[in-house]
Backbone:
């Protein structure tokens, strides 16, 4: 499991470099992202443009991260491939995540319009 | 230590014997290699201290014979003794399997040093042997416990399969059957169906995230919650006699009950079929959309919903489908669409829909059998990575109360 993280405009930016988020890596992924989450950070932007497969355990890890961000938090999924978008729509996880074409447009959106309280 | 001295020279043999006895060792003596070999057949000796040049069987040959014999119950140390200072001679001794080499005349201080080395070695060897035997015992215990767990798991798998409902065949009204292939013996997939308020079939198909024991337990717990109980103390959410509540309200109730802190969640499709009208009410909560097979073709229904147990509060929606007589609905787990063939190609939603279209076009007598054949071929007969389950409902036509009453046993397992 390979991720890169950085802080930008008060958000945690996570680049997932694997092509899948499945049961084999989901726990480690969650642990690493949670480990980078400083107190007070309400926005996580996750870049998944290389991901072509997410299973139920992977979805669970994403929801756990979203939960950690609390009521006003934002988990922004960036660069999702069409098939992955279908998966988020099928499971209606689009109700609790936000979607952006890439990290830059997500940051513009977040900075221009601060996370809802 | 038990030491065997081998020397054809009586004087040095006795001298050495006295010295070793003085150091409190247990000593055997032999005049040549052949006699020494005979003693070794009888006695367990720690160390052989042998002269090189002897009649009948010399020290080098004795050493070779001991090593060739694969040693005795425990390792026999061998120190060869000679007046020859040549390095080639030492090499020969080591190649024959000697552990050490001592020059004649024997320097007793040097001998004592060598003996201490052997003693240290013996001590380590003893500890190793003890640890080995402890490991062997532990290993045996592990094997025993493992076998017990395996037996328990087998029993659990049998119990889980036992919980699956029998197929329903009510001529001219209804046909329900299924396919069930758990990936790791205990499955997180589960389904069930039962007749409620006279002319309605309620059904569900669920898939718990993950595999194995904890997934299977949650799937069984949900199934118990959804299945009407046979006695008045049951806590099932469904009352068989009352008018069926809307599927969305049932899934919402599930979400309240099974909300977890972690990622213990499941996807489910809950629905009911009005046997008089053919109307299906569905609540989809993260399961793949059902496939409808009719005379006019095979289509994927549009439906979606949030999984159960992840987020609270959550509103669930109801989808309505009107079936025509003869139409079938196929519910399936993502273990099918996520599966890959030998070339690593994922079947996917579209590939799966195409496969069902192809199968249906051949107008098979038993649709599920053909699907099973297709899946086995797709997967090259290997085990699936995820649980695979399919629930097939076919509404044949309006139910007359008499038809249902005539087949009570086929509709519900006792």
Residues:
């Amino acid at each position: 499991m390979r991720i890169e993280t950085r802080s930008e405009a008060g958000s945690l930016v996570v680049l997932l470099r694997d092509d899948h988020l499945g049961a084999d890596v989901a726990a480690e992924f969650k642990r690493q992202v949670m480990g980078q989450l400083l107190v007070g950070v309400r926005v996580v932007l996750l870049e998944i443009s290389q991901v072509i497969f997410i299973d139920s355990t992977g979805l669970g890890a994403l929801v756990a991260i979203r939960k950690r961000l609390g009521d006003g938090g934002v988990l922004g999924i960036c660069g999702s491939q069409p098939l992955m978008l279908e998966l988020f729509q099928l499971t209606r996880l689009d109700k609790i995540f936000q979607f952006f074409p890439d990290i830059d447009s997500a940051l513009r959106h977040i900075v221009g319009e601060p996370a809802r309280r | 230590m038990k030491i065997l001295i081998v020397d054809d020279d009586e004087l040095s043999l006795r001298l050495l014997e006295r010295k070793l006895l003085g150091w409190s060792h247990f000593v055997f003596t032999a005049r040549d290699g052949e006699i020494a070999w005979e003693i070794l057949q009888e006695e367990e000796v720690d160390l052989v201290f042998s002269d090189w040049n002897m009649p009948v069987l010399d020290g080098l040959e004795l050493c070779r014979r001991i090593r060739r014999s694969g040693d005795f119950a425990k390792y026999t140390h061998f120190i060869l003794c000679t007046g020859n200072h040549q390095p080639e001679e030492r090499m020969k001794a080591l190649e024959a399997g000697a552990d050490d080499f001592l020059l004649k005349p024997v320097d007793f201080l040097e001998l004592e040093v060598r003996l201490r080395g052997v003693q240290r070695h013996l001590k380590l060897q003893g500890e190793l042997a003890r640890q080995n035997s402890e490991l062997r015992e532990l290993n045996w215990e592990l094997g025993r416990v493992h076998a017990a767990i395996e037996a328990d798991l087998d029993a659990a798998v049998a119990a889980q399969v036992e919980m699956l409902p029998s197929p329903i065949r009510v001529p001219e009204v209804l046909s329900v059957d299924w396919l069930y292939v758990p990936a790791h013996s205990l499955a997180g997939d589960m389904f069930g169906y039962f007749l409620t308020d006279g002319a309605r079939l309620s059904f569900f198909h669920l898939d718990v995230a993950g595999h194995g024991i904890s997934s299977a337990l949650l799937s069984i717990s949900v199934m118990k919650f959804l299945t009407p109980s046979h006695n008045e103390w049951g806590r099932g959410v469904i009352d068989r006699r009352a008018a069926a509540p809307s599927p969305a309200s049932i899934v919402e109730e599930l979400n309240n009950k099974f909300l977890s802190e972690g990622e213990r969640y499941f996807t489910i499709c809950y629905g009911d079929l009005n046997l008089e009208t053919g109307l299906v009410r569905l609540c989809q909560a993260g399961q793949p959309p059902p496939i409808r097979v009719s005379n006019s073709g095979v289509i994927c229904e549009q439906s979606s919903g949030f999984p159960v147990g992840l987020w609270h509060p959550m509103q669930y929606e109801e989808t309505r489908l009107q079936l025509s007589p003869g139409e079938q609905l196929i519910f399936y787990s993502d273990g099918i669409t996520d599966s890959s063939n030998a070339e690593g190609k994922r079947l996917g939603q579209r590939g799966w829909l195409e496969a069902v279209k192809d199968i249906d076009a051949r107008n098979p007598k038993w649709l599920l059998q053909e699907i099973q054949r297709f899946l086995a071929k797709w997967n090259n007969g290997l085990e699936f990575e995820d649980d695979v389950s399919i629930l097939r409902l076919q509404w044949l036509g309006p139910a007359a109360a008499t038809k249902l009453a005539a087949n009570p046993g086929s509709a519900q397992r006792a």
Remarks:
- The mean pLDDT of chain A is 90.
- The longest helix of chain A spans residues 56-68.
